[in-house]
Amino acid sequence: MTADRSARTGVTLRLRPPAVLRVYVVAFLLVWFGMLAVTTVNAGTSALPVVLAFVGVGGLLGYRLIRLGVDATPDRLVIRNNVRSRIVPRGQVTGFDRGAPTNLPFGGLCVYALTSTSGVIGLDVTTAPTFIPGWCRRVDRDLTSLREWLDAGEPEGGPW
User: Fold this and answer.
1) In this structure, how many other beta carbons lie within 10 angstroms of the beta carbon of residue 35?
2) CA dist., res. 5 & res. 1, Å (int)
3) Which pTM value belongs to this model?
4) What is the dihedral of CA 101, 127, 85, 104, to 10 degrees?
5) What is the mean pLDDT of residues 26-45?
6) I need a surface site. Which of 21, 62, 135, 160 has the fewest CB within 10 A?
7) Phi/psi at 158 (nearest 5 deg)?
8) Cα 116 to Cα 40, 61, 77, 113, 145, distances in angstroms
9) Is 57 exposed, middle or buried (0-12, 13-18, 19+ CB in 10 A)?
10) Which residues contact 121 (CB under 8 A, 6 or more apart)?
11) CATH number of 3-17+70-152
C-alpha cells in the first residue's frame, strides 16, 4: 500500500494473503464460472437453477477469500475472516497470540486476537500450514507486526 493511501484511509497495518494465493483464487473463480457457463450451454435451461446456486455460492466464497484480511487503524482493528467480519475498538484488544486454527493434527498455525469483550478471535488471513517451509515464519512476522501495532497505542508508562 502506498503511503498516500495509508494517510487517507488511516490504516497503519494491513495484512493480506500472499499474492500467489489471491491470484490462485481469481484463476479458480474464472475456471469455476467458465465450467458453469459450459454446463448451462450444454444442459439448457433445465440446469439453470442448479447453475445459479453454484454461481452464488462460488461468487460469495470467492469474494470472501479475496477480501480476507486485517486492517489496523489507530483506533480499531478490522478483521475480515472467511465467514464473518468484525470491527474491534483498539481499547478492547488486550493482546495477540499464536495457536492452531483447528484441533486436527497438522492443522497449521494462526494468530488470535485476544479481546476483553468478544474473547478470542482467530485471524483467518494469518492461517498457514506447518508443512510448507517458510509459512510459519510468516505467522511469526504477522504476530510481531500486530503486537507492535498494539504496543504503539499505549500511553507512556503502560495502559494504566
Assistant:
1) 13
2) 7
3) 0.78
4) -20
5) 89
6) 160
7) 110, 180
8) 50, 30, 13, 10, 20
9) exposed
10) 79, 81, 86, 88, 112, 113, 115
11) 2.30.29
User: Domain limits of the chain?
Assistant: 3-17+70-152, 19-66
pLDDT value, residue 10: 65
pLDDT tens profile 116-130: 988 899 999 988 887
- Label residue 154 by pLDDT band (50, 70, 90): low
CB-CB contact of 141 with 128 (8 Å): no
Q: What cell numbers appear for 40 in the block?
A: 448451462
3-state secondary structure the chain: CCHHHHHHHCCCEEECCCHHHHHHHHHHHHHHHHHHHHHHHHHHHHHHHHHHHHHHHHHHHHHHHHHCEEEECCCEEEEECCCCEEEEEHHHEEEEEEECCCCCCCCCEEEEEEECCCCEEEEEEEEECCCCCCHHHHHHHHHHHHHHHHHHCCCCCCCC
What's the chain's average pLDDT? 84
- Record the cell numbers describing residue 9, joined without a space: 484511509
Handedness of CA 134, 135, 140, 141 (dihedral sign): positive
What average pLDDT does this structure show over 137-160? 76
